[in-house]
Structure formats: structure tokens, C-alpha cells
Amino acid sequence: MKYFAQSLLKTIPVLFLITLIVFILVRVTGDPVSLMISETATDEERKALRESLGYNDPIYIQYFDYMGDLVKGDFGDSHRYETDALNLVIERLPATIELAIASMVIAIIMSVPLGILSAIKRNSFLDLFVTGGAVLGKAMPNFWLGIMLILFLAVNIEVFPVSGRGTFLHLVLPSIALGTGIAAEMTRLIRSSMLEILGQDFIRTARSKGLREAMVVNRHAFRNALIPVVTIMALQTSTLIGGTLITETVFAWPGIGQLLIQAVNLRDMAVVQAAVFIIAIFVILSNLTADLVYRLLDPRIKYD
Amino acid sequence: MKKKILWPILVVFVLLIAGCSNESGGESESEGSGDPEENSDSKRLVIANGTDIVSFDIHDHNNTSTEAVHVNMFNYLVRNDAEEGFVSDLAENWENIDENTWTFTLEEGVTFHNGEELTAEDVKYTLERVANDDTLLEYGSYQQIEEVEILNDYEFNIHTHESEPALLNRLSRLGSGILPKDYIESEGWDVFLEEPVGSGPYKLKEWRKDDQLVLEPFEDYFGEEPKWEEVVFRTIPEDSTRVSEVLTGGADIAVNIPPTDIERIEQEDGVSIVTSPSQRVMLFALRTQGDYPTADPKVREAIDLAIDKEAIVDSLLEGYGTPTRTRVTPGNVGANEDLYDTQVYDPEKAKELLAEAGYENGVNITLSAPNGRYLKDKESVELMQAMLEEVGITAELEMLEWSAFSTRYSDKDFEDVFFIAYGNSMFDASLALQRLTKEQAAGETDYDNPETEQLLQDAMSNMDPEERVEQYQKAQEIIAEDRPQIYLYQIDSIYGVNDRVDFTPKLSEMLYVDEITLK
Amino acid sequence: MENLTESMDAVPERKESLIKKMVYQLFKSKTGTIGLVIVIFVSLVAVFAPALAMHDPAETDAVNRLLPPFWLDGGSTEYLLGTDNLGRDVLSRIIYGSRVSLLVGISAVLLAGLIGIIFGLIAGYYGKTWDFIIMRTVDSFLAIPNILFMLIILAVLGPSLVTLILVLGGTTWVVYARMVRSETLSVKERDYVRSARAIGAKNFRIIVKYVLPNVISSFIVIATLNVASTIILEASLSFLGLGIQPPDVSWGLMLSDGREYIATSWWVATFPGLAITLTVLGVIFLGDWLRDVLDPKIKD
């Protein structure tokens, strides 16, 4: 518990750094005014808008204002929606989490059996197929996979709806598109971690005691192989959230990913800041959780 | 055994290719005929847009596709109809009583969605808001209004600062909806933006951002009874996904269909393509002064002559566009139709002109263009670059992502030539040509021709409609020869439409859902 | 793919035997061989692009737009893999695209590696405040998804070949910094390093002589695998409109642009897609093999 508390403490400077990074990213360069205003607007109209948004202040004043507001939990208003940026992001959070969890479930469903089987039946045809497939899954950008899935499973054979969020069926294609890359990564990992454990002494002992192979795999190998997998799953959170940027656009999924892309394109800085911050907290929390779970599963681990 | 590793991969490759080529075969009779039929009588209309509406602040969005949704919820005083000219909407009649004054009479008994009556007070509140608040994006198009003077509940005068021949055009476009004064003043803007109230045939049922916006009929609408039980505007940013939705019956109408998918939609049973000219004209803006090669009129002419606009339209837009030499296209006040649907293309003469200008061995220019903003922008520019190369003009391309482009644009920071598209929601030559007035052209094209300037300034406040049109037409002729901007082509709007509905697109791209009917 | 237990025994001690072992391992591992062959092949294509391409990759041909590959009806041997929407030769574009894709992939990884190694060494070797600052920065970078970072920076700076490399390198360095730091920490405690310090050797010398050689092998493995993910990342950025800008051409750009034609002219996007897949496959095979040979400790 002490370790966990320490980890939590460590996140405070991290969060501070994130706000600084984000501020530098969105404020120092780029001109939101030119994006907000029409192509045919005059110079005076631009000036007026710039003034009204407070972009004429020196940059450090803008930063202090921003940090001051941030401490109060105020990320400012979205200039597009003219409403609180943080609320906008939180509104979108469930859709993205839903997609992320479903993708993770799909990744687990695909990778756990395949990874274990290919490790047990090492060098068989199945193993080769799985490892080859895993590399392919990694090599296919997820926008591409998404478009293909729509063409085959929604247009050619109308099994699933094309896009949007709604029923359970709407969730299937986007989570496959997003989950496949992660499944590929996890399959490779489960396979190698299984292989390593299957070669270790205690498994040999179990085998030599005459335990059935299925029992050995189940009881001993799998449970031990699971430990690094749990960690990797959590570490994939960041990849997963990053992937939603693209998957949500392809499938018109109304989550944070789409919100962010549009906010970036329109220089809706308040929203960008709020979204990056929320995503970062989400990633940090899931990493902390993984850390904790890892320690619970494997009490041998010591920390420096 | 490890040799086997390659062949499962090969299998996947083959499947991938086989799957794709099968798709391209176009044997689609058996497919996709399920959904479109099943709900053919449904009074639920689904429209797939590429972007979500920006906001319900009608004065602060500057976005055609947002207005296309708003027009179903708010009413203008007058509507600008392509065929009939100005027709009544909220205003029963109107009259220009002197140079700076217009008088209007409202329909009686118009109510807002919350039951309150729409009166001259609301008109005053709405128009004066946008005419006075310079932080609003539409301020520039309404600031000509000085005051709205209320005569009684249903009658009012609009006073303009100077004589304003295009006032009706200004009042029948983006941001011209009338807002409920009492509702906004008592509840505040925040509430209005969440729960907007208008006077239109449909009211907001639900808005899930970047997902869908649902409208339901307003029973007490003062005009014809609304036809649809529910109207859904879906937001689908990815083109291919939007096409797939209309193919499978997931949407009745999909906007902005890429020209490449036209054939695919037309081959499918139950869906068709509907097109209309739009107000969007693609153009080059060129530096006419300074150390740029384009400062020489001969070079500008050579650029114009080098580009085969017809070929671009035919190849990239599959014919869905029209070459033009003016930005004021038919349907706009002041249009010069002699310059429309025509092009000057003569590569040989272009070479001669370059030689005359002293560039026998070719000339280098920088051509800046946005990438991914307009239909086929990148491809068009690449094609034009190749055409320019043919006559000896080496254009160095500077393709910019939109936000970068627009920053440079507003800083007036481009080199010789930039590529852009302009629309025109006012349907009037004044908006189309104002960027070429001396004041606004400064730093950009630096266009300065006293004759054009005089014509544009005179026309801007000329209350004699016929003479005003002549002035604008004359100005367009001069501009077409001076070439501070080289107009390329007007692009069409392309819609994929389910055969269960009848839809005639408008030049303005507005989506009046009650004009869309079940077959 | 490789027999793990065997390669674990093969931890090299001396350089001569390392090279021998590598060659031996290479031909023992079929996938490693395949990977190496693919990587060499793609690199050769990139180097000799002008000689190999039959057409100028930017040359448009309005008459021959969207021609299918030569083996299909309407195809022409003039354009072996068909033409795109502007009538450009798909094969020539793939050949030239290999240059940009590899250039971006490799330079971004080298840049990231350089930054990562420097910061990792500093954090690991000097510890304390340096370690704290660097590692918290690493943590904050890790908490923001890569692609999101790139989306923001590229949208602000505007994408170009150079910014793309800088951004890809400048955001992925943290992986190396982490790895190098932990390697450094363990090396630092070894007896020979301790004694070197005890006799007053300069820090810089210790780092170069003892620490650096120990981190290089892990670095090579991770870097190789990251070339693959960078190539894919570039494709994703192209999808967002922030990748390579024309007239430059990369596989990612071709794949992303070609998605519009996937239902009508599949070859426009499929072949660059295959090029990416094949290259990534080769690089991953090579990386897996390097890992088995050089550094069996790293799992991923």
C-alpha cells in the first residue's frame, strides 16, 4: 500500500508536466482565429475576434491564467460549442470507454486461446498460421481494416450496421478493427511468455510427477504466463485510446477520438487540453492498477 | 516446416485481393436490396452529413452545412429562391421606402416552439445582436444594419448605415433566422444553446454531438404541416462510410459523395445519384505586384491558358462541375453568364506569352494549396501542376493541411499563387467581388485597377438594380482579363439518395426537409 | 518463432564468436533469413528507385486513368500494377514511395534512439534529480498516446517530411530512455564499473566504454521493431491528413488516398498496402531474430 501511495504521489509532477506540454503544444504556435473566421472576413473582423478571445495577452500571462483556472478544475469553454470543455469531454467518455473495453475483450478472446495453443503446439501448422497472422494484424493500419470490415460485413453481406453507436451490433465492427492490432501484440506476447514458462523447472517437475498435460498447462503454466499479460494489457491502454482517434472517425463513433480530431482541426484549445488531460489521467490510473494487480498476482516482485 | 510460414500469409493476401476484385466486378444485383425496401414508408428521414453542426448560435458558425440543418428550425424574414427570387417566409410583404430604409410586415400568429408569439421585438433583438456584436462570426455580413425600428407588433423598419441594395440578400442567408427574444433573455444563452427554440416546422428532439441530431415536427407551425415524423441528421466524417450507409439503406440521403463512388451508387438497386451546381468556385489568387513573376500580366494569362479546366472536371469530378471565368455564377445577382461554362485553354499561346515576358526557358512559381479541404483538392492541384509544366511553368507545390493553410491565408503570407474555393451565401456579386477591392486586395493579390475599383464601389451602394448588375458584369469582364484571380471551375454538389424519397438539391445546399418527399 | 531455449544459451561473450553465431543463427532461422532478404530487397529498391521505376512517379496521364494491373482486362504491360486516379503508374509510385517510407521509419527511430539513449544514460548514471526530472517527463509522454501527440504537433506546425521525422522521433524516444536507464542502472552496479569509478575514471569515459556497449544490443532490437510501427504510424497520420504531403509520395499516403477507390479500383490502395505489410513482416521477422540472438532477456 505504501508503494501504491508513493506511485500516486509520483503522478503529481507528471500531471503538472502534462499540462505544461499541452499548453506549449496548443498555445505557442498556430492561430485559432484564422480557423474560426470565414475565408472572406476582413482584417478588422479578425482583430476584433482575436481581442475578444484574449489571445493578445503575452504568452506567460495566458499560461498563468490557464494554470489558475486549471487548479479550479476549469479548462475553459469550447469556442465551438460555447460550453464547458471538461463537460464536453466527460460527456464523450462513456462511448470511448465502451469501445475500448469491447476492443480489449475482443483482443483477449482472440489472443489468449491462440497464444496458448500456438505455444503448446509449437512449430505446428497452427503455430505458424497464428504467428504469421499476428504479424499481419500488426502490419495492417486500423483505418484500413475498418474500411474493409465495413465493405465485407456491412455492405456485401449485411450482417452488421455500417456505422454509428446504438445497439450491441453497432459495437462489433469497430471493436474488431481496434482490437485486432492489440490482439496481434498480445498473441505474440502470450506465446513467448508461455514458451518460457513451459521450459521452466517447476513445469518439468509437474510433468515428471505424471500430471496430465492439460492440467499442467491449465494450473501451472497459464496462470504464470498471465502475469506479464495483465501488465501488457494495461500498458496497451495508451495504444487503445490512440487507436480510437482513427477507429471512431471511420465508424462515425461519437467518442473522445472524434471530438479531439475536430477540436485540433478547429483549434478548439480548451477541448484539446481537457481531453488530453482526461486521457492522460485515464492512462496513468490504468497503469497504476496494473502495477497493483501485478504485485498481488506475483508477490515475489520487489521494487526499487 | 518453417518454410510453411509463408503460405498462410499468402492465403490471406490472396483472400484480400480476391475480395477486393470481386467487389470491383460490380455484380451487385443480389446484394444490398434488403434494407432500402423494408422501411420505404417510414416517416423517418435520415440524412448523413460529413460534419456535425457547429452550434445553435445561428450568428456564430459560418458554416453552410450547419445552416442547412438550422433552416428547418428557424425562419428567415424572406427566402431567396433560385427561380422565384425573394419569397415570403416570416415577412408577408416588404418595401424599400427610401435609400436607407426598408419596411416589413410580419405574418400574424407565428409562434415559437415554446408557444410564444413571434413579433417585431424578436426581429429587432435578433438583427441588432448580429449587427452590433463584432465578436460574432456573421457580424461582417450584418453590420450594414443601423437599427430596427418597431412600428407595432407586426411592422418594423430596417435602417441601414448607407444605401444597401443587397439587404434582402443579407437577410435570406446564413444567420438570418429569427430568435425568440424573451426566451433567450429569461433563460440565457447557455440554455438556448442546449435547448434551442425557433419558429420553424421542426424542433429539436435530441442532439448527440458528432453522432446524430434528431428533429421532430412542431405541431403549431404557422405554415404547411410538417411531413416527417422524425428527421435524423447523422454525422459521418469518413466518405467511404457515408457511401456505405446510403448503399445499405442506413441513410436516405448522403451528402458530399466522392465522384469516384458515383458509379458504385448508380449500379446499386434502390439508390441513385442526384446532383446540383453549387456556389463553390475553385480559383487561383495571384500576386499582381512586386517581385513575383505573376506581376507580369502575360505570365498570369499564360497560367490561365495552360490549364485545361474541362479536363479536370471530366477526369477528377467525373463531369460534375463547370469551367468558369467568373466567380459570380448563374443564380447570383450580377452574374455574367458570358463568362460561365467557358474556358480559355491554349497551351501554344501560353508558351508564346511566356517567351514575350522573357521566360523562354521556363519560369518557377510557388503554388500553395490546402490538402483535404475541398473535393479532390490535392489531385486537382497535382494535375494542374503537370499542365503548367507542359508550357514551361514549373510550379513548386506547397500542400498545406487546412489549419496551416488558413493561418497563412489570414496572414496573407503566400507566394506567387494560391488555390482556394469560395462560396457565396448571399447570392450577390458584392460578396463575390469584395475581395478584389483595393482595400481588401492589399497584401494578397494587390490588385489595383482604378476602373474596376470605381465599378465595385459604385455598385456597392447603387439602388438601381439594373445599372448595378451592369456595373458588376463589366467588372467581371475586366477581372477576367486582368486575372488577379483565375477562376477555374464551379463544383457540383453530389448526393446519394435512396429511391424511396424525392429530393431536389438547392444551389444554396440548404436541406429543407419538407421539400423532400416520399415517393 | 525461434527456439528460445537454444538461443538463450547463445548469449555471446566475444565479438568474433558473436558474428559467427549470428551467421549460424541466421541460416538456422528461416524466418530470420526471410526477414533479412525482405529488408535487403526493400532497401535495394529504395536505393535504386530511379533505375527500377519505369515511369516518373509524378507523371500524370489523363487518358490512362485507373487502368487495372496488366493481367486484368484493360490492363497494359506499360503499367504493370495499373494506374491511379491521375494516371500515374502505381508500381513506380510504390518504388519511389519506399524511399520516403523507409527514410521516415529509419530516421525517426534513429532520432528517437539518440534522444532516448542520451536521456536514459543521464537518468540511469547520474540518478537523483536528473533521474527524477527525466523519468517524470518520460511518464508524462507515456500517458499521452503517441498518435494524439503527433496529431496536435503536426496540425500546429504543418506536416512536412522533416517535421514528420522530428515529431515521430521526438515523441517515441521515451521507450528507449526507459530501456537504457534500467540497463544503465544494472551495469553501473557491476564490479568492473565500480572499480573503474574507484580508480577515478571520468564519467564520460565510463559511460562510453562500459555502459554504452551494454545497452546497444537491446537498442538494436527495439529499434528494429519500431521501424515497423513507425511505417504504420505514418500511414495512420496520412489517414488524418497529416502524413507526407504531395508531391512527395509514401506508401502510407498511397494507401490512405487509395481508400476512396477500394470498391471501384482496388489496385490503387491494395499494392501499397501489400508493400507495407511485406516490409513490416520482414522487419518484424528480422527484429525477432535479432532479439533471439542478441538479447534473449527482452520480451518486448
Keywords for this structure?
heterotrimer, A: MetI-like fold, two-stranded antiparallel ribbon, 2 strands, B: 519 residues, Dipeptide-binding Protein, domain 1, Dipeptide-binding Protein, domain 3, eleven-stranded mixed sheet, four-stranded antiparallel sheet, 19 helices, 33% helix
Compose a concise summary of this entry:
The complex is a heterotrimer of chains A (304), B (519) and C (300). Helix content of chain A is 78%, strand content 1%.
- Span from first to last CA of chain B? 63 Å
Do you know the CATH architecture of chain C? Orthogonal Bundle
Please give the share of residues in helix of chain C: over 70%
Mean pLDDT of chain C: 83
CATH class of the largest domain in chain B: Alpha Beta
Low-confidence stretches of chain B: 1-38
- CATH fold-level label of the largest domain in chain B: Dipeptide-binding Protein, domain 3
Protein name (chain A): Peptide/nickel transport system permease protein
Main location (chain A): membrane
Subcellular location (chain A): Cell membrane
Family (chain A): Belongs to the binding-protein-dependent transport system permease family.
